[in-house]
Amino acid sequence: MMTSSLPALENSDPRLKLTLENRMRNIFVTQPDDTRNTEDNVNHVPVVTEPSSRVLEAGVNTLQRTLVLKKKAELEELKKLRALKREEFKSCVEALALRRSDLELKQRQTKEKAMKFEKFMSENEMKRRRALKKYEAAQEQNVLKQKEIEDLTKQLQHLQARKQVLKERMSKYKIYEDYLMKTLDYLPGAFLESGSESLVMPIIQRHETLSITHQELLQRLGHLEEEVERSQRQLQTMKQGHSIKKLMANKELYELQSELESLKEKSKQAEVNLLTEQEQSREKVEQMGSLFMSINNLAEQCYLQSYGPLEDMNVLTMMDMVKEYILDKADTERRARRLMESGSAMTSRTALTDKRERESMKSLSHKALIKSPSKVSRRSETFS
Fold it and tell me: How far is Cα 123 from Cα 120, in angstroms, rounded to an integer?
């Protein structure tokens, strides 16, 4: 609460002038009664019957009452200004609360957008990894298919070479078959009927059996070779798959290690920030504690009964009470100084006025004694 300084009182202020009634008219007779004008040239001389101390005390009391009324008016204006300031402060607080709610809403929206963006990025990363895995699997399949094509091409070439060898062998043994067939044509019928007992049929049967066994062994050998080749291809495929999985695992391990390192760095930074914030909060708490202790000490020294008990006050009320106490003390001191100064000034002015009145009375009485000793004697009696 602010208080304005007291206005300075000038010498021309009508409140400082003392108005007195004229008890009687003092007329100095210098002409006869018939030629004298009874209303003109009348000198009204004021007569003071009260002592100077009484007059000074009345002026000081009037000035004090005037100052009290002025202070009351100023106090009312200050109360109104204080109410207006409180309304302005309340409106500012409401505006700040509204702005804070808007900022919190924007912050939540920003967080939601950031979360959606992170989710979008994670989904894109997962899609990229799946596409990369599909691409790598397709590459592996292409490599395997290419190798199968190469193997089948080699087998085809091998089979074609074997077919060519078998054709050459058939063409080589064709003459023997033709010779045998011609020999059978030249043999008699009885020899063919008793062929089971002859020496040629067992040889032919043995040859047929051996040829059949040879064909079966060749087929079995072909199957075994195919199984070995198939097993080798499977082994090669498994080795390639194992190497690819090993590479993928190493890649994922490297990514996880990099994420772990980044998380460790973030955790270290978070710990440092947390320690810094704890230190700052501790310093703030200590400062606030010392400030509250200072306010409580000032409130105990500047206690006013109009604010109620000290235990029920909050910090703002205590500060208002201390402020009002200090302003009241300063106002009282200022008012006392001005009253002392105004009292000394009025005392000096009153003494000067009394001195001037005494000198004027002496001069008038001297003139009257010169003109009419009888009139002057009567006037002196009336003054006494």
Answer: 5
Measured between alpha carbons, how far is 141 from 139 in angstroms, rounded to an integer? 5
Give the Cα separation of 40 and 316 in Å (integer).
73
**Contact in structure between 299 and 313 (CB atoms under 8 Å):** yes
Give the Å distances, CA to CA, from 316 to 84, 305, 320, 321, 347.
Answer: 17, 16, 6, 9, 46
What's the gap between Cα 150 and its chain centre? 69
Which residues of the chain have a pLDDT value below 50? 1-7, 18, 20-35, 37, 39-40, 44-48, 195-196, 365, 367-384
Q: What is the CA radius of gyration of the chain?
A: 67
Tell me the three state secondary structure of residue 232: helix
One-letter identity of residue 107: Q
42 with 27: CB under 8 angstroms?
yes
The residue to which tokens 């198939």 are assigned: 230
Which residues lie below 8 Å from residue 196, measured CB to CB, with a gap of 6+? Answer: none
Q: What is the DSSP string of 44-86?
A: ------S-HHHHHHHHHHHHHHHHHHHHHHHHHHHHHHHHHHH
What global pTM score does this model have?
A: 0.26
Q: What is the dihedral sign for C-alpha 9, 10, 11, 17?
A: negative
Q: What is the pLDDT of residues 302-325, one digit of tens each?
A: 877 777 787 777 888 888 888 888
**Three-class SS of residue 2?**
coil
Which residue shows structure tokens 């009320």?
Answer: 317
Closest CA to 313 of 298, 330, 328: 298
Contact 303, 326 (CB under 8 A): no
Q: Which two tokens stand for residue 304?
A: 């006013």
Identify the residue whose tokens are 């009351």: 72
Q: Rounded CA gap, 282 and 289, in Å?
A: 10
